[in-house]
Amino acid sequence: MQTLINNYMFVGAVIMFGIGFMILLLHNNLIKKIIGMNIMDTSIFLLFVSLGYIDGKEAPIIVGGVLHHNGYVNPIPTGLMLTGIVVAVSMTAFMLALTIKLYELYGTIELDEIQNIRGG
């Protein structure tokens, strides 16, 4: 139980990923699927940022002298997550644009109704 309490960020990331994955699986609405994908993205960002954090170390911002190289947190995971956030926002915009085009073409954003209209 103590391990679970100490790793609450990891547990939260896994639960969020599961929620997003279940939304993707269980809903036919494209907007809900996009929301599920965003929840999954956010859980991955939470996981990697919590992995990159080391208690007792400082951000690599030099103010008032340089510490030993072991005194700083590695900035690469944070930079990668910022890049991931930009990619996730771009993909969300692209998926929303495709959803708008599907709505204009079929008049619905429900996947089962689109399949019925297409005859599949």
DSSP strand tally? 0
Which overall shape is indicated by the principal axes computed on the Cα atoms?
A: elongated
CATH class designation: Mainly Alpha
CATH topology: Helix Hairpins
Work out the helicity level.
Answer: over 70%
Number of DSSP helical runs: 5
The low-confidence runs, each spanning 5 or more residues with pLDDT under 50, are: none
User: What's the structural domain tally?
Assistant: 1
Secondary-structure element series: HHHHH
CATH architecture term: Orthogonal Bundle
Beta-strand residue percentage: under 5%
Mean pLDDT: 88
Topology:
Blueprint: H1 2-6, H2 8-26, H3 30-52, H4 76-106, H5 111-118
Helix pairs in contact: 2-3, 3-4
Task: Summarize it.
The chain is mainly α. Helices cover 72% and strands 0% of the residues. Helix 2 packs antiparallel against helix 3 and helix 3 runs antiparallel to helix 4.
Q: Could you describe the 3D structure shown?
A:
α2 packs antiparallel against α3 (30-52) and α3 packs antiparallel against α4 (76-106). It is built from 5 helices and no strands. The model has no long low-confidence stretch (mean pLDDT 88). Helices cover 72% and strands 0% of the residues. The longest helix has 31 residues, at 76-106. The protein has one domain: Helix Hairpins.
Keywords:
120 residues; mainly alpha; Helix Hairpins; 5 helices; 72% helix; elongated; NUOK/Mnh_C1-like
